Structure formats: C-alpha cells, structure tokens
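PROTEIN DESIGN WORKSHEET
SECTION A - STRUCTURE
LENGTH: 324
TOKENS:
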C-alpha cells in the first residue's frame, strides 16, 4: 500500500504527502524541484517530509518516462496522486514550452505508467481555469468547457481528455479535480496572497487588476487535503459501457470579492494596502465560483475554513517562516 504523490515538494503535494504519512500510509514523493519559484521553499517543505518515517523522496522529472516507469516497477503503487505540473496562468504566456513538457508529456507518462503498472486509482489535478470565458455561475462540471483563455487552462483540459481516453481504452480508473484558488500555509509565492503579503509588509503597492472587480472561490488547503484523503479510497464505480473516470470541482463554493479579500488581509496583517489599479491581465478571468454539489454527494465534502481563518493562518505561517 504505497501511494505516489507527484509534485511532493510543491504546495498541495507537500500537505497531502504529510497528511497521508500521519495517517500511517507509506508515501513516495516525486519532484524535480524546478526554479519556477523559490527552490528554498520547496526544499524546506521537503525537509519536513523527509523527517517522517513513512516518506521516501525520489528526485525525478516526470518528463523522463524511463525514470518514471522504473519507479512504478520498483514500488507497485496502489494509488497515484498526481500534482506535479507547471502551474500559473500568467507564466503560460511567457513560457509555453514548459507547460507542454510538464503538463502534456509529463501527464502522458503518468498515464502510461498507470497503464503498464496498474493502480487502483489515479487522482490528478485539473483547474478551475478550464471554465475559461464561461459566464454562467457557479461553474458546474456539466458545463461546456471549450473556451480556454490560456495555454495553462488548455493543458489542464487536455489532461481531462487524456485521462478519459486511458480510462476508456485501458481501464485506468481516474478522478480529475478542478481546484479553485488553493491557499494556506506553505503556499505559492506566485499567488496573490503571498505576493500581497510580501508587498504590504514591505510598504509597497499591490497590483489590483480590473479595478478590483474580480472574485475568487478561495479554498483552504486543509479542506483540499481532507478531500484528497477521502477520494483516494473512492475510485470511480465501474458502470457497464462507461469509462472509469470522473471529474469534480473542488472549491469552497463561496466566491470572495477581491476587495473583501484585500480587507481581510489588511486585518490579519494590521497594515493598510496601497492599491495600484491595473487593467485585466491577458489569460485571466473575472470570477470563479465552484458548484461543489457533486463532491459533497460523493465523499461528504463540506469545506470548513472561512477566508478570515485561512488568511490568518497563512499570515501566521508567513511571519514564522520568514522570521518576521
Ligand atoms: N494552487 C492552486 O490554487 C491550484 C489551482 C488549480 C490547479 N492547481 C494544480 O494543482 C497542482 C499542484 O499545484 P501547487 O499549487 O501545489 O503547485 P506547485 O508549483 O507548488 O507544485 C507543483 C510541484 O510540481 C513540481 N514539478 C513541476 N514540473 C515537474 C516535472 N516535470 N517533474 C517533476 N516535478 C515537477 C514542481 O517543482 C512543484 O514542486 C498543479 O497541477 C496545479 O496546476 C493548483
């Protein structure tokens, strides 16, 4: 019973691997520790994981198929939680090749590995960005998703279609999760919460896009981890004539206006933000809001953490980590 967590030195992968180990589940974590953001932060997460008796780390690039297959051969994984990817909408306008490699070739390699060394369940990260230019809210997994507005979104939608084909052809049981703006301690430095916190503590202005007329369905990391732990043991139920694959939204189900989010951070930091109003960014979308009904039904998903609690927990971690 060994679980593979790809992207284990990343934000979500770190938390999931840690929780599984605490539950007594042996975990192998994979990461290439790339320099998209602070490698120091990735190494600090890894250091915590490596202190856990049930955790083993394999430094590996999922684009390298031979290495990945050898790892599957060695461990005979029961489940795979695939989180390694090139994340970030804006960077996909600058470095599209990175997305093609990690998100398309890398994901194909994971699917191939699961085909050649069958696992009970493959869970993989998709994204709310697949909803692209959709204007109907809340976003539902039943909605058409044919209007990606960034290559990142297109790569995540491609993953969903690739998983469908491997479920259909080879019976790879797969669950895709459309994550909605995940945040919390050990979070990503390229995301708004981290960037705003750093800027506000330094007395620098924060970039507020679209005149602040935006909203995000922020999802606290512990609610994500709890769902992944439950989902691991709930692969799609085989239905004659249907491939064993499924998709879920995983958000809080409550969009927070950007202005309210900034006020919440001001409260937690005790610092007033200097707002630099800028136009909407290419590739960005004004609002996200997850319909979480399907996940509630499947695993009793019921997100617990409010934006005030979550932002306060992030700020406490940030100050401790940066010794402020
Ligand atoms: N955090 C969010 O709000 C959010 C929202 C939607 C989707 N997602 C998706 O969830 C997953 C995890 O996101 P995260 O926020 O933890 O991002 P992250 O960047 O912190 O973690 C991803 C990890 O994968 C590793 N990685 C990248 N390419 C790799 C490769 N080729 N081989 C091996 N390792 C590689 C990175 O080094 C990193 O540590 C990603 O697939 C991301 O696209 C995240």
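SECTION B - SEQUENCE
RESIDUE ASSIGNMENT:
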């Amino acid at each position: 019973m060994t679980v593979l967590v790809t992207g284990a030195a990343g934000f979500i992968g770190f938390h999931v691997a840690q929780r599984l180990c605490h539950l007594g589940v042996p975990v192998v974590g994979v990461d290439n520790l790339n320099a998209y953001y602070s490698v120091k932060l990735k190494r600090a997460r890894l250091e915590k994981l490596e202190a856990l008796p049930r955790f083993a780390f394999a430094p590996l690039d999922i684009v390298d198929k031979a290495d990945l297959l050898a790892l599957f051969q060695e461990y005979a994984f029961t489940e795979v939680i695939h989180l390694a990817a090139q994340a970030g909408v804006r960077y996909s306008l600058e470095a599209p090749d990175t997305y093609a490699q990690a998100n398309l070739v890398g994901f194909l390699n994971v699917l191939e590995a699961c085909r050649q060394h069958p696992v009970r369940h493959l869970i993989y990260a998709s994204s709310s960005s697949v909803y692209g230019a959709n204007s109907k809210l809340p976003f539902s997994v039943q909605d058409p998703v044919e209007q990606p507005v960034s290559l990142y979104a297109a790569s995540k939608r491609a993953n969903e279609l690739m998983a469908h084909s491997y479920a259909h052809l080879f019976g790879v049981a797969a669950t895709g999760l459309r994550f909605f703006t995940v945040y919390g301690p050990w979070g990503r430095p390229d995301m708004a919460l981290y960037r705003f916190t750093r800027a506000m503590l330094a007395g620098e202005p924060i970039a507020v896009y679209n005149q602040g007329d935006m909203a995000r369905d922020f999802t606290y990391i512990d609610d994500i981890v709890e769902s992944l732990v439950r989902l691991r043991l709930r692969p799609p139920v085989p239905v004659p004539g249907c491939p064993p694959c499924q998709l879920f939204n995983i958000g809080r189900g409550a969009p927070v206006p950007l202005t309210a989010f900034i006020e919440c951070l001001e409260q937690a930091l005790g610092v007033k933000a200097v707002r630099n109003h800028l136009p909407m960014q290419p590739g960005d979308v004004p609002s996200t809001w997850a319909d979480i009904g399907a996940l509630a039904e499947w695993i009793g998903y019921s997100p617990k953490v409010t934006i005030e609690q979550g932002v306060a927990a992030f700020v406490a971690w940030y100050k401790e980590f940066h010794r402020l």
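SECTION C - NOTES
DSSP finds eleven helices and 13 strands in the chain.
Residues 7, 9-13, 30-34, 42, 61-63, 83-87, 102, 106, 125, 127, 179, 181-182, 188 surround nicotinamide-adenine-dinucleotide (CB under 6 Å).
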